[in-house]
Amino acid sequence: MERLWRVIPVTVAAFAAAFIGWMIQMLRLSWMRNDSWGFTVTVASVVIPIFLVFIWLAVYVMWGIAREGLRGTQPGDPAPPGPKPGGTA
Amino acid sequence: MARWGMVIDLDRCTGCQACVVTCKAENNVPVVTPREAQAGRLMLWMTVIPEVEGEFPRVRARFTPRPCMQCDHPPCVKVCPVQAMTKSPEGTVSHVFARCIGCRFCVQACPYGVTYFNWQAPTWPKDLRESLNPDFAIRPTGVVEMCDFCHHRLQHAREEARAEERDVRGEGEYVPACVQACPARALIFGDLDDPNTAASNLAHSPRAFRMLEDLGTSPKVYYLKEG
Amino acid sequence: MQTTHPQAFDRDDVLFAPVLRTGRGFYAAVAVLLAVAAWGAYAYTTQLRYGLGVTGLNRPVAWGFYIVNFVFFIGISHAGTLISAILRLCNAEWRRPITRAAETITVLVLFFGLGSIIIDLGRPDRLFYVLQYGRLQSPLLWDVTSITTYLTASTLYLYMPLIPDLALLRDRARGWRRQLYTAISLGWRGTPEQHRRLERGIAVMAVLVIPIAVSVHTVVSWVFSMTLQPMWKSTIFGPYFVTGAIFSGMAALIIAMAAVRRAYHLENYLKPVHFNSLALLLLTMSLLWFYFTFAEHLTAYYGGELAEGAVLFAKVTGPYAPEFWAMVVLNLVIPLAIMANRRTRTVAGIVTASASVLVGMWLERYLIVVPTLANPRLPYARGLYFPTWVEWSITAGAFALFILLYMVFTKLFPIISIWEVREGRELGIQEAYERIESYLPGPGVGAGGPIALR
Q1: Cα–Cα dist B169/C36, whole Å
Q2: Mean pLDDT, to the nearest integer, of B78-98?
């Protein structure tokens, strides 16, 4: 179960990265076809920074919380509230 | 490069609808049942709009043939999310059926209402089914379609011209089916940028006007006012 | 702050109850909603098999119920995140028990907004082309972009404040639920470092989500106002749609709050004061909505342009007049009559007004989409629009499925943010006291004497 603590932030970051990739793909298409370049650049330059914030969120907030949580499951730490009372993590 | 355009002489149009029938046959436009037509699903890439003006005794009927206006600034091309609606370098607006996702945004965007949606799978009566035009694709259900100045005819003309190592002539060599069929010669087709064609001369005549010109769509279909 | 303090559990037991225990009434409601949703799904398979011909759409009305639902659902989504973010940023302490209910509406309803677009497509099998060949000149792609951004943002904004509650649940639940909550609570233990990171994340998202939410409904309006059609091509459509969206979203929030309050006995948490505060906001939005509607229709009337006039009179006196005047009554007269009067501004009254607003706002979306299409600029193709059973069924199914998902959510996660309520109890009162003190003359924060506040 603890493995999922890593999976969730990674999924969020991967989705955000994929979206940025899509924006770049549309920039590329627009450049290749010489089609609505202005619109594409405008939208992409607004959207890409927002998704960078989401990546920051996944890394700083979610990954950070999960790292703290994992630290709690190490032996020697105060008893974790998780399912394992003995602590053979 | 040629800029293909059409001039429609309203003085000559008799309202015979030969252009409408020819267009349906040439482009394999589906036939719908009368009930569907009543529900507003009739498909006519080229249509003749009858208008009755005035009151008795000063009444007069006017017929306005209406193909796609082939705008130089086509609103349908702007809004298409997948570039199914495209404008060729020669300025002809045509639609890639295989790309269309059926969102019908182009239908909303066109102020002339020339785009048609395939509400159901295309059908023809048996006799018509046997005489479909092999030069042009049949559209599946769920996509938009519209007049593209018989683009397949331009492709034929271009192939012949290329064999003779020249450009397609600005007049006579490539005409849409409706222009060819018009018995009153009310439809004139040609290169609008070539000053020697009848079409470009008539487009500059003082009688010439374009539909909803103030919208800024710059149609390449000109009408000649009744004299 | 100790979020896993065992003593504090008993006090908020009623908040855990819906998650840990389920009554028979719940299953009955689920069965009914599932049946309606299944019927809607059957209608959609019919549409998939025979094409959009089974709907009442035609030429010129090529957009109908699905697009109306799309605009309506996206509007409802503004309930949530936008309101909860604004209240959070304003330090409105009464927000604490309502933010979760609001954010949940947003996340769930956005799927139905996107779904409505997919249902409307003639070729849903080619949906992938939007990713492959998308071009950002089309306002439809602006929609795809901004709604995806909003969906991501509001999902994160729902999830982050949920983490401490998930940890609370993890410690109480048994069996598969314990596994689930352990997995998604990210090992939350309430350490200062975790709190610091979480609160920073929530603060950033609360700021970021507001412009995103505003942009979403603006872009939805641009789908219409970027065309040349009469009464669509309007510069105020952006703010007009955003206003309508917040208006309908708040109505939906009030109804959802009243429903969970009744079903889960949360009278002690969702008090009349919460409803009263929201009612006053709803009243403001009602007046603002009327202002925009009035301005929009007056300019069309006074200008007297032929094409716009045709649409306007179709709405005001023509075939759409019943819907139009019903909309005015439902959106303005009824809410105003109920909520401007302190005696009728009870929970029951506010819920009635909200229900009226929801119906009225759906009609408003309908009256924006259909009359313009029915009266295009060139008067050659005129038509009316009569939806068939397919559109009604799919619409009913979508609403049923939304309610169902909302109910399931309340069974999986606490619909009232437990840790935020506790935080309010433990820190909020003190903070509010000090904040008010800092507004008053005298030396800075916390140095106050015995100022009579209560």
Answers
A1: 63
A2: 93
In a domain, A16, yes or no: yes
Domains of chain C: 13-427 (1.20.1630.10)
Length of chain B: 227
Give pLDDT, residue C453.
39
Q: Taking 80 as the threshold, does the pLDDT of residue A86 lie above it?
A: no
Say which of A9, A30, A80 has its CB closest to residue C135: A30
**How many angstroms separate the CA atoms of C315 and C23, rounded?**
47
DSSP H or E run through A5 = helix A2-33
pLDDT in tens, C330-368: 999 999 999 998 899 999 999 999 999 999 999 999 999
Residue ranges in chain B assigned as alpha helix (H): 18-26, 34-38, 75-79, 105-109, 126-130, 151-163, 177-181, 198-203
Establish whether the linkage from the previous residue to C441 is cis, with ω within 30° of 0: no
With a CB cutoff of 8 Å and minimum separation 6, the contacts of B71 are: B93, B217, B218, B219, B220
Give the closest-approach CA distance of B220 to chain C in angstroms.
Answer: 18
Q: How many CA within 13 A on the CB side of residue B164? A: 9
Q: Chains touching chain A at 3 or more Cβ pairs under 8 angstroms? A: C
**Shortest CA distance from C144: residue in chain B:** B81
C-alpha B123/C-alpha B138 separation (Å) is 10
Instruction: Spell out, as residue ranges, where chain C has pLDDT lower than 50.
Output: 1-9, 446-454
Instruction: State CA C91 to chain mean position distance.
Output: 21
Instruction: Quote the CA–CA distance of C276 and C258 in Å, as a whole number.
Output: 12
Is A86 domain-assigned?
Answer: no
C-alpha count within 13 angstroms, C-beta hemisphere, residue C139: 21
List the domain range (segments joined by +) for residue A17.
Answer: 2-72
Evaluate whether C264 touches C100 at the Cβ level (below 8 Å).
no
- Chains touching C (at least 3 CB pairs under 8 A) are A, B
Nearest to C59 among B101, B112, B116 (CB): B116
Percent pLDDT > 90 in chain B is: 77
Specify the pTM.
0.92
Residue C268's nearest CA partner among C37, C450, C73, C13 is C13
d(CA B200, CA A46): 45
Are A1 and C182 spatial neighbours (Cβ–Cβ below 8 Å)?
A: yes
- As a whole number of angstroms, the distance between CA C66 and CA C130 comes to 19
Which one, of B5, B6, B10, lies nearest residue B224 by Cα?
B10
Rounded to whole angstroms, the Cα distance separating C349 from C338 reads: 6
Contacts of C48 (CB under 8 A, 6+ apart): C124
Band (A83; pLDDT cuts 50, 70, 90): very low
In a domain, A44, yes or no: yes
> Could you report how far apart the first and last alpha carbons of chain B are, in Å?
33
Domain ranges of chain B: 6-51+61-224
Q: Is B104 helix (H, G, I), strand (E, B) or coil?
A: coil
Q: Phi/psi at B64 (nearest 5 deg)?
A: -120, 105
CATH 1.20.1440.230: does it fit domain B6-51+61-224? no
What single-letter DSSP state applies at residue B6? E
Instruction: Give me the number of domains chain A comprises.
Output: 1
Spatial distance between the Cα atoms of C272 and C275, rounded to a whole number of angstroms: 5
Residues of C in contact with B122 (CB under 8 A): none
B220 close to B69: Cβ distance less than 8 angstroms: yes
What mean pLDDT is predicted for residues B5-24? Answer: 94
A88 part of a folded domain: no
Q: How far apart are CA C324 and CA C311, in angstroms?
A: 12
**AA identity, residue C301:** Y
Contact B100 C123 (CB under 8 A): yes
Tell me the pairing of strands B47-53 and B60-66. Answer: antiparallel
Size of interface A-C (CB pairs under 8 A): 114
What does DSSP assign to residue C288? H
Q: What are the residues whose beta carbons fall under 8 Å from the beta carbon of B72, sequence distance 6 or more?
A: B91, B217, B218, B219, B220
